[in-house]
Amino acid sequence: MTGGSTPLGESPPSAKSAVIATDLSAASKTMIESETGLSCLDRIGVDRIHLVTVVPSNVHSGMPGMNFQKRRKEALRAYRSTIENAGFEVETHVVRGTPHRRINGIAESIAADLILVGSRGKSPLENRVIGSTARNLARTTVVPLLVDRIERGVDDPDPIRRHLFKRTLFATDFSENAERAFQAFEYLRHATEEVTLVHVESPKDDAGGEADPDERLADLADRLGDWGLDARTEVRRGDPAKEILAAETEYDPSTLLVGSRGRSRLRRLLLGSVSEEVVARATGNVFLVPPPRTA
Length: 295
Description:
It is a single chain. This protein is of the alpha/beta class. It is 34% helix and 23% strand. The chain has two domains: 16-150, Rossmann fold; 167-289, 3-Layer(aba) Sandwich (Rossmann fold). It has a ten-stranded mixed sheet with strand order 3-2-1-4-5-10-9-6-7-8, sandwiched between helices. It is globular, with a radius of gyration of 19 Å. The chain starts with 15 loop residues before the first strand and ends in a 6-residue tail after the last strand.
C-alpha cells in the first residue's frame, strides 16, 4: 500500500485538529515549512491547525535590543500563510506563561487530536536529544505528541526524517497503554508504507503465563493486514529502552511509535522510564501516545 492512498470503498480518515507549538526558532520554522511534513498531516486527516507560541513570563516586549512583538507578528504571519497555502484552516494563539503548560492547556481546551513540536538533534556536548519544552510536554501531555527531530548546529536546518509516518517502528510491551498506541494506526496507516513491530523481553520478565511474544506480534501484524499494511516482527531480549533504540538504528524508521505509562494518580502524568529514555534519545521522530487522563 502506498502511503496516503485510500483503497476503493474505504472511508478517508476523520477530520482532526493539531496544535503546532512554535518558539519562532529555526527548528520551528523548518518543521512548519516542511511540505512533506504538512502533507503527512493532511493524509492522516488533519484539516485544522492551531499555531501556538508561548511568551515566557520573564520576557517583555520593551526589553533593550529586543523587538519581540514585531518579530513574532512577522513570523506568525509567514507561518500562517505557509500552512493555509497547504490547504489547512489555521488559528493562531499567542499566550504568556510556562510553555508546556500553556500548550497542554490549549490542546485540551480545543480537544486537539495531537501536538507537534520540533526538537533539535543531538548536541556534540551532550548525549541527550530532546529540548526542555519537548521533554516537559512528553512528561505531561494527555494528547498524542509528535516530536519532530530537526538538524542541529546549522543555520538552515532540515528535518532529520522528512516523512513523519512513512516507516513506523512500533514498540510494544503488550500493555493496555501499548494497545492504545497501536490504535493510532487506524489513522496513521493513511501515511504509512512500512511497519516494524518490536517487543523486548526483559531479563525481569517471567517465563510462562503469557502467550508467546512471537505469536502476539503476529496477531498485531494480522490486524495491520486488515488495514492494508504489511509488517515485519521482531522479539529482542535485553534492556527495553536500549533494545528499542538499537532497533531504531537497525531499521531506520521515520518515526518511533510508543505508548507512555502513567506512574501517578495525580493530575500530572509522568512517563515510565522506558518511554522517557526513548523520547529523549531517539535519533528520529517519536510519536508518543499517553494514557487517558482518567488513568
